[in-house]
Design a protein that fits this description.
Layout lengths: L12 E10 L2 E11 L4 E5 L6 H8 L7 E6 L2 E2 L4 H7 E4 L11 H11 L4 H14 L15 H13 L5 E5 L7 H16 L3 E5 L3 H7 L2 E6 L2 E6 L1 H6 L5 E7 L6 H6 L4 E7 L2 E6 L2 H14 L4 E7 L3 H9 L3 H12 L7
């Protein structure tokens, strides 16, 4: 679908001491990172951590207070037009027209980018067919569902063959079909050479898609590596997952004080007990159940997940992460 991009020696994205202040609020704090050409790079963080502000600086929508950012070797402030020609952006705010059809929107956007008519016609056809919207191409976008409108916005960001595609919460609040289509498109684009810069509140989505993730907290990057290496950094820690029958109220209090337990987190009807000594903790769980007349419905050990890494570096607990993901599913409020 996408033509291969010529080889480049410079990183696709390079950020040095990037800082953004809104009055006394330090939204992005001396951020440093690089994204290599052809990567799918994920920026993860809780609400207000600075993800969207970072994307806005990288895509020329707002100027940094200090520091520099470069896209494909071009300075995001001094060479703003050259940067815009090389990127696609799917942001929170739509840049499309609801009174126009999807087809007319794509043709208009392509013309703005200087794409000749035969090329933008063929490109629009390819994108809408892949995104299962070609049959509705002449309908006004006001008649589309939320997921359909998001798909058209992604198509609009791709009509000019960008080198780097920025996706700010691309599947937030979408139905399963639209989310799967978008993830499939991300993989296909990446296989064909497009660098993807992704922010998401869905930790599993980042784990599935990204070759590397950075975790941001209060405007600072606190971890940056491949998902597998980040999980391996917690390798000395195991999780014992256990569910009991009946009413249980003091598992967190009892096991939270145990010298071999690092943390206890409730997930629905299950408890995740973090420990470096799972065999000893399992014996303690069995004794606890027996002395309290409880039946163990299920018990197993798990390796740390990317969510566990996220919890460690952001200070959020698992319940807060679940709420964060739920808000994203409901397409919650404005993010910093």
């Amino acid at each position: 679908m996408v033509a291969m991009i010529g080889m480049q020696t410079e990183p696709a994205v390079e950020v040095s001491n990037l800082t953004k202040c809104y009055g006394e609020l330090l939204a992005v704090d001396h951020m440093n990172f690089k994204v290599n050409k052809g990567e799918i790079f994920g920026l993860l963080g809780p609400n207000g951590a600075g993800k969207t502000t970072t994307i806005r600086m990288l895509t020329g929508l707002t100027n940094p207070t200090s520091g520099t950012a470069r896209i494909a070797g071009r300075d995001c402030v001094r060479e703003r037009l050259a940067v815009k020609q090389r990127i696609g952006l799917v942001a929170e705010e739509s840049n499309l027209y609801g009174e126009m059809s999807a087809w007319d929107n794509l043709m208009f956007i392509g013309e703005l980018y200087g794409v000749d008519k035969p090329t933008r016609t063929e490109r629009s056809r390819q994108l809408l067919e892949f995104l299962q919207l070609y049959e509705r191409r002449d309908d006004r976008m006001l008649t589309y569902s939320k997921g359909m409108r998001r798909r058209v916005r992604i198509a609009a960001a791709l009509v000019h063959h960008p080198e780097v595609l920025f996706l700010d919460e691309p599947t937030s609040g979408l139905d399963v079909q639209s989310s799967r289509l978008i993830r499939s498109l991300i993989r296909e684009l990446n296989e064909e050479g497009v660098t993807i810069f992704l922010t998401t509140h869905y930790i599993d989505e980042a784990d599935q898609l990204c070759g590397r993730v950075a975790i941001i907290k209060q405007g600072k990057i606190v971890a940056d590596d491949s998902p597998q290496k980040l999980k391996f950094s917690l390798q000395g820690e195991h999780i014992v997952e256990v569910a009991f029958s009946g009413n249980v109220s003091d598992v967190e209090a009892v096991f939270g004080k145990h010298p071999l337990v690092k943390d206890v987190v409730k997930h629905g009807d299950k408890y995740h007990i973090h420990t470096a000594n799972p065999s000893v903790v399992i014996e303690e769980i069995v004794r606890y159940a027996s002395s309290n007349g409880l039946e163990i419905v299920s018990i197993n050990t798990k390796q740390p997940s990317l969510e566990d890494v996220f919890v460690k570096y952001t200070g959020l607990d698992a319940v807060q992460v679940e709420r964060m993901e739920f808000r994203a599913m409901k397409a919650g409020g404005r993010r910093v």
